[in-house]
Design brief:
The structure is a single chain. This protein has 369 residues and is of the alpha/beta class. The chain folds into 3 domains: 72 residues, no CATH class; 61 residues, no CATH class; 174 residues, Rossmann fold (3-Layer(aba) Sandwich). The protein contains 10 helices and 10 strands. The longest helix is centred in the N-terminal third of the chain and has 23 residues.
């Protein structure tokens, strides 16, 4: 219908305008976390400002038209309230519109802005997923799969063939032998599954600002990986001198005051992978965020050994993000760069502040692993 086509055209044009506004202010959306709290299912509510409101354009004064007649400027229209007291403001209000944007759209914008390559899942990490494909019609089946249109056609053909069809009283009632049902077959499709395991140091040197940076960055990493994988799971580990698995809310709100043993998180991560995510069936993405402090050089050597012998041979990539803190030494990043300077399976990124989040995301995802 022409009207429907016009509406769709206007809707698509509006979406293009919104997309342009989001791209223009994309860094602001990445570095401020308000919209993450407005996530609903696969959509996020984004406040978009400066949407121009319609304005009237008046013609020359000498032209006639509506609104002509007696009356003075400032007189009330019938039924209109009298002017209020007080002084009017002289600055325009900010017009803010909340729009629903899908996570897939956000991922595409992120990919365009950072020029991220599409991820190529490891071939041997595909799992076979069974699904049903409806491929035809049959004379038997459950009532839930009965196809009304096909059943009616069969009844109509029977009426015409038997001569019982009356054009003046075109009533056609299907009987049992007219019923047709949708038939299906089982289809096996390879589906790439992925798991992201986030680890974070929650010792006293990691403050609220550092955790907020990790929260924002992990949201955008998840958004991109979900665009590339049909099945994505996330797990969360916090650690100080000991590590434990927690839910997402606890991950971003826990504060501890003990020492730091990074190997405790790596050991727990290894256990989770070996128990739930066989490396030959899953695409695995561990990410560790810390301010770079570790309890001892001995524990650092243990971490390097775990990375070299277990993680790097078996995961798609291992990401280490070092969030700058005035209390952290930053030594762990230096040790990683020294040991694995030429190994692109380990990606390290220094996140000095919120403005560096986009750069860090590109560090982690820019190689399409």
């Amino acid at each position: 219908m022409p009207g429907t086509s016009r509406i769709l055209e206007d809707h698509n044009r509006f979406k293009d305008i919104i997309r342009g506004r989001i791209k223009k202010d994309f860094k602001k959306y990445v570095t401020h976390g308000e919209m993450i709290g407005k996530q609903e299912n696969e959509y996020v509510k984004i406040p978009v400002s400066s949407i121009d409101l319609p304005k009237f354009r008046y013609g020359p004064k000498q032209q006639g038209g509506v609104g002509q007649g007696q009356g003075e400027a400032g007189d009330n229209i019938d039924g209109q309230q009298a002017p209020g007291q007080g002084q009017a403001g002289n600055t325009p209000g900010e017009h803010v519109l909340e729009v629903d944007v899908s996570l897939d759209e956000l991922a595409d914008i992120l990919g365009e802005e950072l020029e991220l390559p599409r991820i190529e899942p490891r071939g041997h990490k595909n799992t076979n997923v069974k699904s049903l494909k409806y491929s035809g019609r049959g004379p038997v089946g459950p009532d839930s799969l009965r196809h009304f249109k096909a059943s009616y056609k069969e009844a109509l053909k029977r009426s015409l063939a038997s001569g019982t069809y009356d054009p003046k009283k075109p009533m056609v009632v299907p009987i049992r032998r007219d019923f047709r049902y949708r038939t299906y077959r089982e289809v096996v499709k390879p589906q790439a599954n992925a798991v992201v395991i986030y680890m974070m140091d929650v010792s006293g040197s990691m403050g609220d600002e550092q955790k907020e940076i990790v929260r924002l960055e992990s949201f955008w990493i998840n958004t991109w990986l979900k665009r590339n994988y049909k099945g994505l799971e996330t797990r969360f580990i916090i650690h100080d001198a000991a590590a434990k698995e927690v839910d997402e809310k606890t991950f971003f709100s826990t504060s501890e005051s003990g020492g730091t043993l990074i190997s405790s998180a790596y050991k727990l991560c290894q256990k989770i992978i070996e128990t739930d995510y066989p490396w030959n069936e899953w695409n695995i993405y561990p990410f560790h965020f810390s301010d770079g402090d570790n309890w001892s050089g001995e524990d650092t050597r243990l971490c390097l050994k775990l990375l070299k012998d277990y993680f790097l041979p078996n995961v798609n990539m291992f990401g280490y993000g070092q969030v700058e803190s005035k209390y952290g030494s930053g030594q762990f990043l230096k040790d990683l760069e020294k040991e694995f300077h030429s190994d692109d399976r380990l990606i390290v990124s220094k996140i000095e502040n919120r403005d560096k989040i986009l750069n860090s995301i590109k560090d982690f995802l820019g190689k399409g692993k």
